[in-house]
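In response to reviewer comment 3 from the previous cycle, which asked for concrete evidence that the modeling workflow produces usable outputs, we include below a single protein chain processed end to end. The sequence was submitted unchanged, and the resulting C-alpha cells are shown without manual editing.
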Amino acid sequence: MNRDEPKKHGMDASRRRLAKAALAAPVLMSIPGRQVFAAGNCTLSGDLSGNVSAHSTSCTMVYGRSPGYWKTHTGLLDPAAVTFQSIFGSSKFGSLTFLQVIELAEGACAGGGSPPYDAYCGLPEVERQLARHAVAAYLNAHESENGGIVAPGYYFSTTQVVDLYMAVESGATYYLNGIGLTLTPQEAVDLFATTFI
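The workflow returned the following C-alpha cells.
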C-alpha cells in the first residue's frame, strides 16, 4: 500500500481503538450513542448524535497522521508557516508555528530549552501535549476537508478541533449535538490520539 494513500480500518480495528480510548479516557464511555461506531457513522458529530439508524455491520474510520508525521511532512498547510495563535486564537503559545508547538511538546524543553522554546518550558507537559495533538488533529481535519492526504470523513472537523481545544484550555464544557463534554487535558490528548494512525 502506498504510504500516502489514505488508510481505512475495518470494524475490528475501530473497536480496538475505541476500547483504547475507553481505557484512556473513561469519561467518554458515559456519552450516549457510543455504539454508533458499529453503525457506520464514524465522526465525532455522528458519534455524539446517537444516530444509529444506519444498520451497517462495519464502520470505516478515517484516521489521520500523528504529530510525528506532521513534524517531517507538509500537507495543504505548511506546519512551519502557520502559527498556533492564528488558528486556535490562544496566546498561550505566543507566535509559535504549528511545527514549533509539535517540537516543544516533543522534547525541546530538555535541559531548560533554547529560544524560542525556553519561554514555554514552564507550561505543564500535558498542556504542551494537548497543543501538539490539537495541531495534528487540525492538520488532519484540514487535509480531509480540502482533498489532501487524509481521506474525507476524518473524525473531527477543523472547527471541532479548535472548539474542543479551547474548551479544554479554559476548563469549559464543550457542547456538540447538545451533549456536553468536560475533558481534562489528558483526556483530550487521549481522544485526539485515538484518531491517529
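Residues 8-193 form one domain. We consider this sufficient to address the reviewer's concern, and the full set will be provided in the supplementary archive.
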